[in-house]
């Protein structure tokens, strides 16, 4: 089981690395755009579009890592007053609800990418980017996030057994 959890953590870490790479690429693309406009009075014509696409990758690939590192905002005004055992059971229930929502989101995001690909939909921009390419970030991000939620559920049950 430790090996599986390590693989899931590694997948989240890889997602975080790619998230950071996409953030750097966004900054570079914007700097290039500024330079071209300031010096040559020209534009790449794709900076807005591709920055937005890459931002989707930044968010989606960073979700699971942020979750793993407990970086998402939690409102604990009610749960902090509960007993530790009750808190753990409530967290498990919430994790299963989150898992159901994420599986639903994964299914429909995959369906969206498939439909977009099969219909050969393209962005209505000068680049005419095939829309399935930026949309791939959604099912990919949801899949890694689902793995991380499953890992967290396993850890919660393992913690319960260890007591």
Automatic annotation (TrEMBL):
Annotated GO CC locations: plasma membrane
Pfam families according to UniProt: DctQ
InterPro entries in the cross-refs: DctQ (IPR055348), TRAP_DctQ (IPR007387)
Protein location: Cell inner membrane
Topology of this chain in the membrane: Multi-pass membrane protein
First-listed, main subcellular location of the protein, grouped into a coarse class: membrane
Membrane spanning residue stretches: 12-38, 50-68, 89-110, 130-151
Presence of keyword Transport: yes
Keywords: Cell inner membrane, Cell membrane, Membrane, Transmembrane, Transmembrane helix, Transport
Keyword DNA repair: no
Limits of the Tripartite ATP-independent periplasmic transporters DctQ component domain: 26-157
Membership in a protein family: Belongs to the TRAP transporter small permease family.
Protein name: C4-dicarboxylate transporter, small subunit
Species of origin: Deferribacter desulfuricans (strain DSM 14783 / JCM 11476 / NBRC 101012 / SSM1)
